[in-house]
Amino acid sequence: MRVFVTGATGFIGTAVVRELIDVGHQVRGLARSDAAAKSLVAAGADVHRGSLEDLESLRSGAAAADAVIHTAFIHDFSNYGPAAEADRRAIDTLGGALAGSDRPLIVTSGALLVQRQGALATEEDAPAPNFPRKSEEAALALAARGVRASVVRLPPSVHGRGDHGFVPRLIGIAAEKGVSAYVGEGLNRWPAVHRHDAAHLYRLVLEKATAGASYHGVADEGVPTREIAEAIGRELRVPLVSKSREEAADHFGWIAPFFGVDGPASSALTQERLGWRPVQPGLIADLNAEHYFEHTANAVPLRG
To answer: Could you tell me the pTM of the whole model?
Structure first.
């Protein structure tokens, strides 16, 4: 199958590209720079020049493919509204190119974005209506128009070597401030998945998904945030502290609202329907590996 992948040189996208190529799919990845194009060629993928904002490049890439996997997102949390709108336009453009062809479109969303905060989220829960990111709504609207669209919901921590998301930001804050903090009692939970398990799920969704369905790329249903802070503090050898919700905004900055969410999620239905089984290390086991702290080992004075 010829698969067009957006975000193909990102942390998740590179794992998806490798997974697809390893089982014989032909991959064409979206590349906005010479460095990205070189990376794709090295991985064995074809190059499609363009960007998330270049809608014509998205349209032509999708039109020439048998399927599309959309992992790209502009991760600018200081301008989240415009980033979410760019994502919605990209999804609508990709879907328009696939309309009437029965070719799959897989869109990425978040497992924290479901409606029932604090309850164990399932694949059948609706996304939160007031959240700016509208990836899922855009995909499901396309499905209603006859596009074979489905959704992969990822947790806030997609972890593994090369991670540059939420957890490395928490490590950086702890290194900078000399304490590893959590919010309140730290009982709120984050779901998590290893990037290679997530990549395997994308392939299964590509090959087996039902149009209009949502799937959860969740291995750890809910890791208490205090345990995350403890793992970071242990590796950096800094004290563990609690921050009130009022203090959290100042201490964590833009990540505070995310780190304070209680958002456990289940992948039971995904595993049952697709036969997906996560096999990689969990989040805490991964945090105990040295690679998460390679760039901070000399940043914090060791205590004790």
So the answer is: 0.93
How far apart CA 32 and CA 48 sit, in angstroms, is 9
Which structure tokens are listed for 148?
A: 């074979």
Helices and strands in the chain: count of H runs, count of E runs: 12, 12
Name the DSSP letter for residue 125.
S
Average pLDDT of each block of 10 consecutive residues along the chain (304 residues)?
97 97 98 96 98 96 98 81 91 95 94 75 85 84 90 95 92 96 96 98 96 96 98 96 96 92 95 98 93 63 28
What is residue 271's three-state secondary structure?
A: helix
Torsion sign over Cα 94, 100, 104, 109: positive
Q: How far is CA 159 from CA 83, 145, 168, in A?
A: 22, 35, 9
3-state secondary structure (DSSP) of residue 215: strand
18-24-30 Cα angle (round to 5): 50
Distance in angstroms (rounded) separating the CA atoms of residues 284 and 263: 17
CB 58 within 8 A of CB 94: yes
